Amino acid sequence: MMLFSKSIMSEEGKLLGLIDEIATSEELVRVSRLHALEISDGCKPWVRSLHRTDKIGSLSEAQELLRTAREQAKRTAPNMPQHLACLDAVEEGLLHGGYKGLLKEAAVSKELVQSNTTKALTHLFFAQRATAKVPNITDVGLKPNHVKKVGIIGGGIMGSGIATSLILSSVTVFLKEINSEYLLKGMKTVEANIQSLVARGKVTLDKARKALSMLEGVSDYSEFKEMDMVIEAVIEDIPLKQEIFSELEKVCSSRCILATNASSIDLNVIGEKTKSQDRIIGAHFFSPAHIMPLLEIIRTEKTSPQVILDLLTVGKIMKKVPIVVLNCTGFAVNRTFFPYTQIPHLLVHLGVDLFRIDRAIRNFGFPLGPFQLQDLGGFRLVKASGKEYENAFPDRTFRSPLTELLLKNGRNGKSNGKGFYVHEKGSKPKPDPSVLPIVDESRKFMNIMPGGKPISVTDEEITEMVLFPTINEACRVLDEGVVARASDLDVASVLGMSFPSYRGGIMFWADTVGSKHIYLSLKKLSEMYGSYFKPSSYLEERAMKGMPLSVAVEAKSSLKSNSKL
């Protein structure tokens, strides 16, 4: 409970000795008064748990539990000092009595409250709660429409994940696939998702049965005329998405929200063959959609405020954290982080070991390095999204031949077990040395190593070379008003890209590093390696003025017009 903020019911709390009394709301004042009188009369101690020992057990057992807890904390939260501090306070109480434990707790709390970790986590706590406040949407008196039925097109990993999340939120889902074989596979994936949640104790059997009763599979659009919202979740293929939206416009009612789960394609392109642009909106979930908490809501110039509010409400029902952003290539999250996926390829072609790059990024605090992350998504997706960024941002896109070479060699990441890592069922991914000849082939093709020799860099320099261009792109996103506030990018980076929460998010961390240091580093790197590192005007301006990167963003962003690319 203390280490992971696990919630318990009041009855269990009393059984554990954490609660003195339980009272109904009607009886609360009376019971509280009686309890206070008994304390003042000396009949009961002020803090009862300080004097209880019946729940502790033997000292040796307690110390063994603390030892195990410390090992677990170091393994699961190595950069969270509050976990070990909490255990230190508990141990002090066990060894020297409850009062001494309280004094220890007060001392470590005073120290921790001033730490960078606490400041970062506090910032993130309030930033997450601010994302649902959208200018000119949630503050103008609009009332949300009730979304009862949702159609989902595509039963792959993403579509089935979205369906899982919706039915667990008591929303009826009609899952559509192109044929019975794919439909059966999609339905089974939803069932497997829910069974996994039951096995992990996240969902009760009763809730699982109720959820599955709200799922229906279809292979045509006959049921879609009754939908309140449709979410397209097919592959990143523009002609296919355009065809689907043209069909939806014909079969769905005029009040139906038409949403796409596209991760990087411009929504104006997806909807250009329809006349219903006011109903078209992006609903970008992150995989696995039934677990990842972020929902990126993308609006175009023509998306109606009512549609945005309705999707915000659906996100709330699904217990997602919503971030409303303007339409542009990659939107806010993938747009900000496209250098995070491309610069590692540049480093590899400059001679840096790819597994070392992943280790450096993991040591910074990410759960996965960029190459292991690409394994998870699959190289076809990496290739498709790379083309989108190449078209939109040709001056700062690194055109790596490595992805194409991997695909030609029969590798597509985790989906077929062959990527940069070996993926075997039941075991953690392991670096695959057999990929190195393919890497060497790609290096020879590019031939960009200075003097034909690998560059010499420290792990810290690797981290900065990967993350500083990401911050630079975030600056462009802010400058263009793609998000309402800088803190939205902090939340998005943590919940969508697993940026370490104890660093407060991408922009919060950038401000702790300092705009001037980031600017000077990028300027030097751009002189050495090219325009991939060229500082943005937004970053340069703040660096020259000594300003934080998050300053005055709110005044700039209106979320009313499309961002310039």
From TrEMBL:
Domain of life of the source: Eukaryota
Domain (3-hydroxyacyl-CoA dehydrogenase C-terminal) ranges: 330-421, 463-542
InterPro entries: 3-OHacyl-CoA_DH_CS, 3-OHacyl-CoA_DH_NAD-bd, 3HC_DH_C, 6-PGluconate_DH-like_C_sf, ClpP/crotonase-like_dom_sf, NAD(P)-bd_dom_sf
Keyword Aminoacyl-tRNA synthetase belongs to the record: no
Entry GO MF terms: (3S)-3-hydroxyacyl-CoA dehydrogenase (NAD+) activity; enoyl-CoA hydratase activity; isomerase activity; NAD+ binding
Pfam families reported for this sequence: 3HCDH, 3HCDH_N
Keywords: Isomerase, Lyase, Multifunctional enzyme, NAD, Oxidoreductase
Catalytic activity: a (3S)-3-hydroxyacyl-CoA = a (2E)-enoyl-CoA + H2O; a 4-saturated-(3S)-3-hydroxyacyl-CoA = a (3E)-enoyl-CoA + H2O
Domain 3-hydroxyacyl-CoA dehydrogenase NAD binding stretches: 149-326
Associated pathway: Lipid metabolism; fatty acid beta-oxidation
Gene Ontology annotations for the cellular component aspect, listed alphabetically: peroxisome
GO biological process: fatty acid beta-oxidation
Family the entry assigns: In the central section; belongs to the 3-hydroxyacyl-CoA dehydrogenase family.
Protein name listed in UniProt: 3-hydroxyacyl-CoA dehydrogenase
UniProt organism field: Gossypium mustelinum (Cotton)
